[in-house]
Specification:
It is a single chain. By secondary structure, this protein is α+β, with helices and mostly antiparallel strands. The protein folds into four domains: 3-93, Uridine Diphospho-n-acetylenolpyruvylglucosamine Reductase, domain 2 (2-Layer Sandwich), CATH 3.30.43.10; 100-221, Uridine Diphospho-n-acetylenolpyruvylglucosamine Reductase, domain 3, CATH 3.30.465.10; 225-329, 2-Layer Sandwich (Alpha-Beta Plaits); 335-428, Alpha-Beta Plaits, CATH 3.30.70. The chain is 36% helix and 20% strand. The protein contains 17 helices and 19 strands. Strands 12, 13, 14, 15, 16, 17, 18 and 19 form an eight-stranded antiparallel sheet that branches. A hairpin with a 4-residue loop joins strand 5 (100-104) and strand 6 (109-112). The longest helix is centred in the C-terminal third of the chain and has 20 residues, at 398-417. The mean pLDDT is 97. Bound molecules: flavin-adenine dinucleotide. The site of flavin-adenine dinucleotide (FAD) has 37 residues, from strand 3, helix 6 and strand 10.
Length: 466
């Protein structure tokens, strides 16, 4: 079916207000936050903005009957081209469907539509002294639907893990238009082992198996106290060794972040008044819980860290905690500014490696940067081995683009070689699917079988994941 007919039919089914067909509108949907879409933006044939499960179902049924691709989209903050119509089709923009259906505080859970923004949800939950712990850097922009589809996490994954354990149930529109409820039709329980776990299957499926139209999430009580520690190291290997030592002393912080020398330099160049100590690495620990336990754990971290660190500071004072954390909170912005004629690109940005390999990996990335003559800023969630690399290039320079793509490829291969993964939290999308066999071997065959069972016509977000 041609683009003009698709547009006409969609307007007939859903009405003009819910269908975008202008070239300018479609261009907006040709990008997400990935470098891929900067290089190769890809317009959909049309965009549908649904306001109900029925709208989604009608769109999907039409697509199914006419073999048209369907691509779900949240806020488009993904770094992988995941919500892009790489082979044409209809984009379903779920970001406007942002209803918090029910905060079931009695049962420590919340039911939302997919377009709810992460930060907004936590603002509402705070009124009930509850929160949804996964904490992506994109919290003020990304949708809960996008987080579930990507199994997103962030700074606090070391203690609170990713989105997946919080998802208790879903409503999903399958590629043929069927509507299913995972986690039980009437269940409002925290535990439920009845049936095959389709909820888990959907979480992290990146829009390749169905469209998530409603989400039931488990919430946690808001911790009463926090503390922040900063430790400065002259030897890179001492940073992961300290993290391990902290764990072995029985402390599981809610966040452990690393800035290596490249990130420290970038922060100081961008905001000299922060004046981070020049060092091989800085570790930031966040501890949360009740006040006595936070102090107790802070003391253990101090005792462990001073064995190797050049300096150490601990604080539970709100203002001082914000100051200690400031360098980390502006690292991504600082990385984007290290070259006046350059930009930080989102590619190869999300490898995750075993804790024992973090120092070697950072050194190897430094060498790769030198090999290709590209400045790379490294930081990340060292507590779970998630290293964010920020290569900075002039994207208008084809030579630099070619080099950075090779650099990124080598970073991905490095992650696999050291027993890690090409993506700790951002997902596979269109940009990392070429590593599927290398990462999963024969399991990819079974992933494809599951995909075929759910989506026999292959219309649901094709060209992604495997
Ligand atoms: C500055 C910045 C910081 C970031 N920090 C983090 C971080 O700390 N941790 C982290 O994990 N990620 C991070 N990200 C990546 C991104 O924000 C997350 O992956 C987020 O979950 C994507 O949500 P979204 O609503 O933007 O989804 P989109 O980008 O719109 O879509 C992402 C994927 O989900 C699918 N999808 C979206 N909605 C649905 C739905 N309702 N049903 C089925 N499939 C759907 C899409 O098809 C696509 O494959 C960051 C991104 C930026 C730009």
């Amino acid at each position: 079916m041609g683009t003009a007919t698709i547009k006409k039919e969609l307007i007939k089914i859903l009405g003009e207000k819910k269908v975008l067909t202008d070239d300018l509108d479609l261009m907006y949907y040709s990008y997400d936050s990935s470098f891929l879409t900067r290089l190769e933006p890809s317009n959909p044939d049309a965009v549908v903005i649904p306001a109900s499960t029925e709208d989604v179902q009608k769109t999907v049924r039409f697509a199914y009957e006419n073999n048209i691709n369907i691509i779900p989209r949240g806020a488009g903050t993904g770094e992988t081209g995941g919500c892009i119509a790489v082979n044409g089709g209809i984009v379903l923009d779920l970001s406007a469907w942002d209803e918090i259906v029910e905060i079931d505080a009695e049962n420590m859970q919340v039911i939302v539509r997919p377009g709810v923004i992460h930060a907004n949800l936590n603002e509402q939950l705070a009124k009930f002294n509850l929160f949804f712990p996964p904490d992506p850097g994109s919290s003020k922009m990304c949708t809960i639907g996008g987080m579930v589809a990507n199994n997103a996490s962030g700074l606090r994954a070391v203690k609170y893990w990713s989105t997946e354990p919080y998802v208790l149930g879903l409503e999903v529109v399958m590629p043929n238009g069927d509507i299913i409820i995972t986690g039980g039709m009437k269940a409002r329980t925290i535990k439920n082992v009845s049936g095959l776990n389709l909820t888990k299957l959907m979480v992290g499926s990146e829009g390749t198996l169905g469209i998530i139209t409603q989400i039931r999430l488990r919430c946690f009580p808001v911790p009463k106290a926090r503390g922040i520690a900063m430790a400065v190291f002259d030897n890179l290997d001492d940073a992961p060794a300290t993290v391990l030592d902290v764990y072995q002393n029985g402390v599981l912080p809610s966040g452990i972040e690393i800035l290596d020398s490249s990130a420290i330099k970038a922060v100081n160049e961008f905001k000299p008044e922060i004046n981070l100590p020049e060092a091989e690495a800085i570790l930031l620990f966040e501890v949360d819980g009740n006040p006595p336990s936070v102090e107790y754990e802070g003391e253990i971290i101090r005792n462990v860290a001073v064995k190797r660190a050049r300096s150490f500071e601990w604080s539970t004072d709100k203002k001082r905690m914000a100051e200690l954390w400031e360098g980390r909170s502006i690292t991504a912005t600082a990385a984007a500014r290290v070259r006046p004629d350059g930009s930080r690109i989102f590619a190869g940005e999300d490898i995750s490696v075993p804790l024992s390999k973090v120092a070697d990996t950072l050194r190897a990335i430094r060498n790769l940067g030198e090999k290709y003559g590209i400045r790379v800023v490294n930081y990340g969630h060292i507590g779970d081995g998630n290293v964010h690399t920020a290569p900075v290039i002039n994207p208008e320079n084809p030579d630099e683009v070619e080099k950075v793509l090779q650099l990124v490829h080598e970073i991905h291969l490095l992650a696999i070689e050291v027993g890690g993964t090409t993506t700790g939290e951002h997902g596979v999308g269109a940009v990392r699917r070429c590593y599927a066999e290398a990462e999963h071997g024969k399991a990819v065959e079974y992933m494809r079988k599951i995909k075929e069972a759910c989506d026999p016509k292959g219309i649901m977000n094709p060209g992604k994941v495997f």
